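Go through this fold for my students:
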Amino acid sequence: MRRWIRLGLLGLPLAFVAVFLVVPLGLTVVISFWRRAGFRIQPAFSFDSYAEFFSGARLFVLERGLAVALEATILSLAIAYPIAYFLSRHTSARAARTVLLLFTAPFLVNYIIRTFAWSYLFARTGPINTLLIAGGLTHQPLDWLHYSHFSILVGLVMSYMPFMLFPLWLAISAVDRRLVEASWLLGVPPWRTFIRVTLPLSMPGVFAAVLFGFVGAFGEGAVPTILGGVGYQLMGNTITSTLDVLTYPLAAAMSSVVVAAMFGLLFCWYLLFDLRSFLGKILRWRM
């Protein structure tokens, strides 16, 4: 009876994943090989959508999306890792939990509203330009603050950096402090101890954080639309605009390429790191 109960409890989440994740992804891949016939699509086995994607202007959007996602991920990692290191090594567990809770507070506000708030801050008549002009730092509004590459990066970093903070904090917290103390006792300087002990042992968390940040930024659609303007195209809003003109096979092909890139990152994480060992360290540290 217990065995059947365990199988039933395990089957529920598996069934949920199959119905709401695997089946839609499978349908997306299948539709990517269909053809458009007027305002309808018809079943086929054609690579026309993929050929159109990789040979047209949308390939440039893919390259730009990869570059922007990589930039945003590196910036987010540069911000999140020092914060996570400080919380795990130089604060109490209660203070760390409080700070992490504060990082989740913005998510109580709707995602679109938060993005529009950044648009208001960066506008020509927004608070930032107003303060700069009032302080005499500039004589006219800074146009590069809004509808620019800068505003896109700020929006992506602020949207996905908190997601990167949690796996980094868990990974650094799971590093055995005795290893660090032993390095110090052997006369190794703190910076070399960090490079040779803490950083290598926290790499599973670093890769998990990179995965969360890159996947989110790569598939983003609202941030480039609101902060970048109509002419700034990334993969998310490009797929949306393709759906608006009823080119479903092409949109499915682009979505399939994006999903394949994300699964490639997941597969690399699976090959490079032992996830069970990583979670075991965290559980032992918590106990």
